[in-house]
Amino acid sequence: MSDGRTGRVLLIVAVLAVAVAARLTTLHWTPLPSTLDGFGYVALARDTLETGTFPLTRFRADNIVFTAVLTAVGSLTGERPLYIAQLVVAVTGAASCLTAMALVKRLAQSSRWRHSRTTLAMGVVGMGLAVEGIYLRRTGQTDEEALAFLLLPLFAIAVHRLLTTERYRRRWGAVVVVLFAAFPLLHTFSSLIVALVLTGVLAAHLASIPSRRDAVTALAVVAGFWMYMWGYYRIAERSLLEVPYVDRISAYPGLFLAWLVVLVATLVWFQRTSARLQRVTIGGAVGLWFLTLGANAVRTVFPGTQTTPIGLLMLVAAFAVPVVFAVIGLPRASRDRRLIGPVVVALLLAPIVIVYFSLTASLTPEYYGTALRGQTFVHLPVFVLAGIGVASVAYRRSPSPDGGLGTPRTHSHRLATVLTVVVVVAAVVTMPIAFVNLDTFAFPTGATESQFAAATFTADHVDEQWASDHPFSRIVDLYYPGASNGTYQPTARWLGGGSQPNCPTLSRASWGTTGAHLFPAGSEKTTPAAMDEWRYENDVVYDTRGIDSVYLVRPGGNRTSC
Fold first, then answer.
1. Fewest CB within a 10 Å sphere: which of 57, 120, 187, 190?
2. Do residues 225 and 195 make contact, with C-beta atoms less than 8 angstroms apart?
3. Could you report the per-residue pLDDT of 350-384, keeping only the tens digit for each?
């Protein structure tokens, strides 16, 4: 094996190792799922292993695939899903970094770059996504979306290759069929992003004036996916399965269709317009997100949701560095109409469209969640284009007869090293975002074993309704579906200056410091002295010591109503 190939293999191994290690960071303080929804999935897998059948009465429409994966891994390893889920997500989330490296490699090949230049671009995207905070957060949380981030680019690539090449067409067709069938069962919101990406790929394909057979094939695949997705979710709703996000689209169908037209028109326009206009368009669209986030630090853009902590705003600002290089690299992707360019541009435009649909639909907590979820999908294509942008700036070449291989400028290798360090360091700066609570900026996120034990005690011993914050009420609701429900409304009322809860309350010491998590509403807090006085005046029936001490408090007298 040549030195160049050896170096690239070592790079891939290094990216995978760093990406997995970053996504296992939460194991330093808890072996449990790193997100609240994860407790729901491990509970479904637990019950499936115990009974031999899926607990369909508790399923959402998109619980099937991820529950099956956790069940299979639990069965093979003999370990409880509660303790293996984070490892499964770490591996799948890390693998998506390799998918991004494959995309940038294909873009580099379309530009006929040298091996070293291509490897540089691959290193930027691989290491950047391995540690970038927002992407790390979403691909490292125990959620089916981590698997979706891996499969979405593969699906788009497979469809594009099916439409543009005769070689291995049956193999690409088989990949398309499998992912076509799996995505709506995997994740509702990701399926919506997939549909938008495929629509963009279709638009790029039809703009190239294909044969009638190819055009019909393209329309059949993309229109078929839209019909299958909506049909499945309609049937799921009638079967009383919960179907998230779809109602947010159906509430504003005309507006959604308008943004779909914007997606198609922009992608086709990018194939014909100047590099400067492309950069201004995408730079302005993503730049406005930074301004919106900054405005949200002063006053909530979506009323009823939390403001942006200043610390979080400062970390997110570092993401502007890869965005700048992505804007520089964008024209190379839009000019590549045959190999992989349409896929990368569609992956970039689809989340931008869904964010602006959310901003123009309704400024409510529901659409806040849609916008927040949507922007995470832009990080992979941004880093793919950033890798191209860094290599383009570092190795500017003079024209040459063979199509641009030219001679590197003086000190280009040194410049490449500097720019790579700048982008990767910017990504590292954002890394803490993955491990803090977004509303209070408190570290760490996730439930520790002592906190989970307190939730278990509450589920086992409290028969009436009880009060707490959003995380505790969600954990008990998801992992112990037969237990009494918790509510955070009395907590929000009390910490907001109202009366104390008149029912058992599972509290944290941090309610007196960083505040209680009351998602989607903003956090509320009191003082440590007020917390101490409240505990003194009532009955503490359970307490734990740990990163954040937890107390189950019963009110004195016969007060039991929340």
1. 57
2. yes
3. 999 999 999 999 999 999 999 999 999 999 999 99
